[in-house]
Amino acid sequence: MEMYKEEVEEEEEEEEEEEKEEEEEEKEKNENDDKADYDRREERPQEEEEEEEEEEEEEEEKKEKKKKKKEKRKMKKKTKRKKNEVEKEEEEEEEAVANVCHMRG
């Protein structure tokens, strides 16, 4: 009877140890799965963030190009306006000279 009791106790201890090992393995597996999930979640936002940054940079470049183009058009108009003013002044001077010459003549 005593031997039987010892065998049962040993079996129970072994079962407990096996259960503990299984629990530890399960716990470890869950932790690894959680870590993998976390890593994937971390990577995705980082990739999305990088994409957003690239898009923002592209938008900035487009805005900069548009601004330069607008500035260039503005300068062209200004130059053309100035050229027209100079031509008009020259024509007025020629007319004035012609009128003076005509009056004297």
Helix content percent band? over 70%
Number of strands: 0
- Count, helices: 1
Shape type: rod-shaped
Which helices and strands appear, and what pairs or packs with what?
Blueprint: H1 2-104
Task: Summarize, please.
With 105 residues, the chain is an all-alpha fold. Helix content is 98%, strand content 0%.
Please explain how this structure is put together.
The termini are far apart. The protein is 98% helix and 0% strand. It is mainly α and 105 residues long.
Supply database-style keywords:
105 residues, mainly alpha, 1 helix
